[in-house]
Design a protein that fits this description.
Layout (H helix, E strand, L loop, with lengths): L1 H18 L3 H13 L6 H14 L2 H13 L6 H13 L3 H13 L6 H13 L3 H13 L6 H13 L3 H13 L6 H13 L3 H13 L6 H13 L3 H13 L6 H13 L3 H13 L6 H13 L3 H13 L6 H13 L3 H13 L6 H13 L3 H10 L5 H13 L3 H13 L6 H13 L3 H18 L1
Helix pairs in contact: 1-2, 1-3, 2-3, 3-4, 3-5, 4-5, 5-6, 5-7, 6-7, 7-8, 7-9, 8-9, 9-10, 9-11, 11-12, 11-13, 13-14, 13-15, 14-15, 15-16, 15-17, 17-18, 17-19, 19-20, 19-21, 20-21, 21-22, 21-23, 22-23, 23-24, 23-25, 24-25, 24-26, 25-26
This protein binds one DNA strand of 10 nucleotides through helix 3, helix 5, helix 7, helix 9 and helix 11.
Length: 457
Amino acid sequence: MVCRFSTKLLNICIASLCKVGQLEKAEAVVIDGIRLGLLPDVVTYNTLLSAYSRFVGIDAAYSVIHRMKEAGISPDVITYNSLIAAATKRCLLSRSLDLFEEMLRTGIRPDVWSYNSLMHCFFKLGKPDEANRVFQDIILTNLLPSSSTFNIMINGLCNNGYTGYALSLYRYLQRQGFVPELVTYNILINGLCKSRKLNAARRILRELGESGNVPDAITYTTVMKCCFRSRQFEQGFEIFSEMKSKGYAFDAFSYCAVIAALTKTGRLEEANDIMEQMARSDIDLDIVSYNTVMNLYCRNGKLEATYKLLDEIEEHGLECDEYTHTILIDGLCKAGNVEGALRHLKNMTKMGFDSTLVAQNCVIDGLCKVGQLDHAIKMFASMEVKDSFTYSSMVHNLCKARRYRHASRLLLACLRGGMKILRANQRSVIDGLCYSGYTSEARRLKSKIRLARILHY
DNA sequence: GTAGGGTTAG
């Protein structure tokens, strides 16, 4: 009895160290405990596992599960739930599904937390129907849904393009007595902003204010980002200032949102100021923060500093992602080094990145800017996937070279594919055709554009 | 032991 009580105390001590990421000290306490004859139990290992997953990585978390098995302690539902949630968070979705099956195989009964994670996983996989089936299972069986069940459901519906359903579910649940939490409001505001339902988003923001909840840094970042997305930059920057004056702590999310927006609008000095503020703070930079800074360096034309940053990323044990490489490729293009950009694009393909579309678009534009239009046309023809940026770039540059009939063909191909193209580009093609005497072609193009608009909007 | 916000191109 005395011994069990002491292990409990030991676990409390370990948990408090794990909470602040002091993993070495926590491990030392485990060893001290063993010396005193207090063997770690399932709670000890679960505590360590979630801390390793949070502060180190998923592999470190897996090694804890091996350690506990070696010590003869069986993982329980909490062990599996932690691992499944960690895998889902990192988009290792097949691992999450495997773990869920493994849990069933070993005879551990999943609880509502396990089902919540499974639902989240299906949403991330872009399988809303399967997620919905899990949701129905939770509702129809004896499992009591938690508020997170509803939050995950609302968020998943939003992320899979069903904001309308998300909103109806939210209203229905409210009528059933569900009291939304701050997270619920943040989820809805974000989902509605992303699908450009700004009036609905404003309504939810108002409801949040009336609910007695206080918006947090996430609410602010969400609304700020929403302004940037709808090109209301001044309003977004005002929100950033408001956050500051109200004493909210900035984290990497809010810093990156505002630095990126300042960079995009060419307000580089202000962007540099804020970037330095972020560097001076005690925030650990992750890959997204590095990408944001790197993009700013590229815009400043500081390619050497950019390469130094790449070393720094490596030194910190972080991995460059699709964004990092794309930003570098664009930076090389903007500096006129298209050869370098092409080389790096090849590397990127070799590295096995799924999508290099944005990077290819940057190179197409770069080639045109250095006068290699025919090279760009060749590259364009060889691309398997194209989007509206690809077409816009080509149309714009063909017009600049007065090759209006070629531009007109691409413009039509773009519209036929259901993609939008900048009005300014459409205008240039029509005006160019008229100017060079192809008036009837210009007329035909106009009517085809009108038809495409009717068909696709 | 879950759920929410941030980075790239015309």
